[in-house]
Amino acid sequence: MAAQLVLSGNLEKKEKNHYAVGNGLVLEVKDNYPRRAFLYQRGVLIKKVNLADKTAMKLFIVEALDHGAMKSRLATALQMSRQTIDNYQGTMKYFGLEGLIQGYSVSDSKSRQIQRKTHAAGDKRIGGNRAKQLAGIRRQARQDRAKQKRELPFSFGYDPEALALEPKEQVFAQEHEWQPTRYAGVFTYLMALISQWQWLQLVMGYFGSAYKIFLVFLLMGARNIRSLEQMKNVHLAEAGRLLGLTRLPGKPKLWQWFYSACERKLSLRLRSDYFRYQLCSGLVGLYLWFIDGHLLPYTGKAAVHYAYNTQRQMPEPGRTSMVTCDSGGRIIDFEIQEGKGDLKGYILCLWHKWCADLPASPVMVFDRECYDAGFFSRLVLTGIAFATWQKNVDAKELAAIGEEKFTEAFEFNDKSYRLFEQEKIVTYYPPQDSAVGAHCFKLRHIFIWNQSSNHRTCGVAWSGNLEMSTVECARAILSRWGASENTFKHTKDRHPLHYHPGFKLVDSDNQEIKNPALKEIEQQIKKAKKQIDKLYKKLAHSKRALNKNGTVRQNSVKQRLEKNIQQKEDQLKGLKDKKKQMPERVNVSSLQDYKSIKQIDNEGKYLFDFVTSSVWNARKLMVNWLRSFYHQKNEVVDLFYAITNCHGWIKSTPKEVIVRLEPMRQRDRRMAQEELCRKLTTLGAHTPNGKWLKIEVGKSPL
User: Fold this and answer.
1) Using an 8 Å Cβ cutoff, are 470 and 420 in contact?
2) In the prediction, which pLDDT does 413 show?
3) For 486-493, what is the mean pLDDT?
């Protein structure tokens, strides 16, 4: 068992030849011949090596780095230079395992000439000095990064001259010594967005001096502040200092910043550049795309189109936010549509929008709302792969399927599943007025049996040219519902999805509504049917009256009922004919006593949701980084939010901005906190005016 160590930033030894090398790793070095090393992780031996074997030592060092060991501490423990360890890691990265072990001799001869001849036979490996080759690769990488910083990848229409603000308008323009701030943890979001998404450069490039409201929205998203009105509870001086704005103003000035950004009408171009950069940089997934709509309710007095609330199962005034996420829950794209929206049209437009930036069609995963042969036909003809649940499944028919047919088994979300696949032939017959003929195509019909709940269902998929197994199709379908609900389910507790800053109403381009006369005539038809039903019931209980001579008595009760029924049926037929002649939808301008339909301006909502999605994606990225630093996987998310809520101190110099977080009490959590801050600092984030951003963990500097 390795000795317990206490770390304070530098390498310390509590017991002879025991070294803490970071991320809970302890290295024990035994100097007696043969020299050996043992690597422990939290007291458990995970690796040992004979240091006299140079190849084994190289592999040992590379594996230790993969476990999270620090290069400088490894170098001190193994008595070698840090540059050598860096060269080992670089050689493994660029030249592979063969490049790492190249030059290792298995010959018993001590003659270098004999060893070279042994390796020269059939040797086609890359020759030359590995250190010099790595230096050239690193030099070229630095030049590429410098060129990339000079030529920002946002070359789709943003104005680089907007970055040339006055010195006092720049972010972190003021210099100051250490000052306290209770919002120090929010700096992690800012560093991740600047380094990975070049977020600040993008915002400032489009909005110039109006970029400040985006930093306010960033604070709101990071600290779950639900509205601009709630900013009154924020310590404005401390928050402004952390965001680089010296001091946040009061509510009137914040609204002035907001409307200054909205008046530029740049949300569409801003989102397009941001989403494209994510796709091209590999910051979001390109395999499975989950698409769904989310209700944005409206509670005002104006007349607006109705959306549908699936939880309440009823229409409500509002809009629908169409959101696309990848398998990791990161937001790829979103669009706000008026009323109920068109999910099918959004899916088709999504592919046409990003097809030029994608190597192949992602698999679109959607719910039963889009289960339609005509829509499937359009997807197949366009070449868009998809997967979805089957609509109107016959439970008795599924229950009758024999268990032996479910041949494949897998586990998902701690539940056991079995499944099998069949071929489903679909023929779509377009409307008669269409110039396109019938389309016959094949779908993959996947039958899924949840053994944990003994529930059976099925879905359909079309993979096109993609090689997808049956299990992969089933996982794609199951990833969209239940315990794996898409991003809406997880973000609603952390972000105000319904918040819309600055409502503005304009006349809608779509002024058509359902014909109100249809509702009136439908009520008349319903009333006529009820009357006919009552007459038929009376007729069934009435008896035919006869005269004494056996003839039918005239004007009897039964005859009167038959006559009334005939009149009512004629009336009902006339109402139905009248309904057929009436248009289903009419323009409100042709009606009396009807208000024009209003449309909610989405510019402010787009800007706020852009920041919300940015914060959410940055959170996803940093949580993934944190997983490698913290062994309690079910506590990683809570640990991340604890880090982002830390108090601390901030210092601004002419060349850098430094934020120091207060250390956490628990040793494992503090070590993970330090590793995350170290990771963020090494990314090299810097502001457009050239100040480098750094974050660390330590005691109060005051």
Assistant:
1) yes
2) 83
3) 67
Beta bridge partners of 40: 26, 45
Question: And the tokens for 627?
Answer: 């997983």
* Range from 298-312, 388-402, 537-551, 581-595 carrying the lowest mean pLDDT: 581-595
**What pLDDT sits at residue 593?**
64
Q: Rounded to whole angstroms, what are the CA distances from 525 to 533, 535, 561, 562, 565?
A: 12, 15, 20, 19, 14
Q: Taking the domains of the chain in order of start, what are their residue ranges? A: 168-247+604-697, 387-479, 512-544+554-596
**313 pLDDT higher than 80:** yes
User: 3-state DSSP call for residue 43?
Assistant: coil
Least confident of 9-13, 22-26, 481-485: 9-13
Tokens of 424: 């489903």
Query: In sequence order, what are the residues at sequence separation of 6 or more whose Cβ sits closer than 8 angstroms to the Cβ of residue 441?
Result: 376, 377, 380, 425, 426, 428, 462
- Dump the DSSP string for 374-394: HHHHHHHHHT--EEEEPSS--
Q: What are phi and psi of 453, to 5 degrees?
A: -110, 0
What span, in angstroms and rounded, lies between the C-alpha atoms of 479 and 485?
7
Of 156-170, 208-222, 455-469, which gets the smallest average pLDDT? 156-170
Q: Kindly state the helix (H) or strand (E) to which residue 642 belongs, with its residue range.
A: helix 636-644
What pLDDT band is residue 19 in, cutting at 50, 70 and 90? Answer: confident
| 6, two tokens | 């206490």
Tokens 């709302």, residue located: 369
**Cβ neighbourhood burial of 374 (10 Å; 0-12, 13-18, 19+):** middle
pLDDT of residue 585: 81
pLDDT at 99: 73
For the chain, the residue count is 702
Closest to 292 (Cα-Cα) out of 497, 98, 3:
497
> The tokens 């099998």 sit on which residue?
420
10 Å Cβ neighbour count for 38?
17
Of 602, 607, 656, 570, residue with least CA distance to 191: 656
**Binning pLDDT at 50, 70 and 90, where does residue 104 land?**
very low
Written as six digits, the tokens of 423 are 């071929």
The secondary structure of 614-639 as a DSSP string is HHHHHHHHHHHHHHTT-S-GGGHHHH
SS3 453: coil
